[in-house]
Amino acid sequence: MQTKNGLRIGYHMSVAGSMDLAFDRGEELGCNTMQIFLTNPRTWLARKLTAEEADAFLERRKSSAIDPVIAHMPYLPNLSSSEKEIRSKSITSLNVNIALAEQLGIDYLVLHLGSHMGHGIDKGRENLSNAVSDAIDLTKNCTMLLENSAGQKNSIGSKMGELTAIYESIGSKRVGFCLDTCHVYAAGYDITKESVLKEMDGEFDLNLVKAIHLNDAKHELGSGLDRHENIGFGHINKGFKTFLSHDKIRNKPLILETPYNPKLKPGEEIEIVKKMLG
Ligand SMILES: [Zn+2]
Ligand SMILES: [Zn+2]
Ligand 2: distance of its center to the CA of 48 in Å? Predict the structure, then answer.
């Protein structure tokens, strides 16, 4: 179900208890799209999904207006690493997540680009591209979305030109990008300015962006720090309007990954965004 202005927006939702409960929680907040974790985000543990739980999820999905459903990889994997053990665990985790995503009919699986850990950006990019290319062969319906980073030390993929290079070295059309607004701002792109969006689109085709992580930035432009802030409480603030009105960004699914804030009612940021867009 498309809203009048085509806006698709939702939060990252908890799957605690049973995966299908994410739909109830999302609907209660007013989401018409959402993001979930398929495995525990802070451990390497795989997750066994029972047939009942998968069926309940698929059933609930049919009756829900929440669409698309996006999954996010856990935080520990680092697909850019050259270190054997981390690499092997990371690839296993990716494969487990892809299998779950396919089983649950997930539209997009978001993965972080990781860190080269001192082995240099070229080596990191090569490791990442190989891992993603292999993983694409395991997917049938789910598209993998690579998420831009904030520019922390040794990180891969904070600059637009780098994202283009990664896309080209993977060489598959079945991969897209998830643009995190906090990360891109921290990496030095002032997305509140049309001229900057134009420059970005020159270095990287913004049509490759399939989903947005809509987070305000706690720190100033170019800080390199990955610290999310609530919409309208950070440095991007009302400037979101310029970004969200861009031709190639408009109508992309927006996922809020903002911190808990006692000053905001549950789901209030959805209303804040709607108001901003008039
Ligand atoms: Zn992420
Ligand atoms: Zn972040």
Answer: 27
Ligand 2 midpoint to CA 216 (Å): 10
The ligand that comes nearest to the alpha carbon of residue 184 is: 2
Q: What is the distance in A from the centroid of ligand 1 to the CA of 112?
A: 6
Per the structure, the complete domain to which residue 242 belongs is given by 9-276
Ligand index nearest the alpha carbon of residue 77: 1
Cα–ligand 2 centroid distance for 22 (angstroms): 21
The pLDDT-based confidence of 173 (bands split at 50, 70, 90) is confident
Instruction: Judge whether 3 lies within some domain.
Output: no
The mean per-residue pLDDT over the stretch 28-53 comes to 93
- Centre of ligand 2 to C-alpha 109, Å, is 16
Q: What is the largest CA-CA distance in the chain?
A: 51
CATH number of the domain residue 233 falls in: 3.20.20.150
Mean pLDDT across the chain, nearest whole number?
A: 95
Give the three-class secondary structure for 179: strand
- The 10s digit of each residue's pLDDT in 227-243 is 999 999 999 999 999 99
Residue 1 lies in a domain: no
Nearest alpha carbon to residue 175 among 184, 183, 164? 164
- pTM equals 0.95
Q: Which ligand is nearest to the CA of 150?
A: 2
Q: What integer is the mean pLDDT of 185-194? A: 98
Q: Is residue 4 part of a domain?
A: no
Q: For residue 74, say if its preceding peptide bond is cis, omega within 30 degrees of 0.
A: no
Asked if residue 262 belongs to a domain, the reply is yes
Other residues' Cβ atoms within 10 Å of the Cβ of residue 214: 28
Question: How many separate domains does the chain show?
Answer: 1
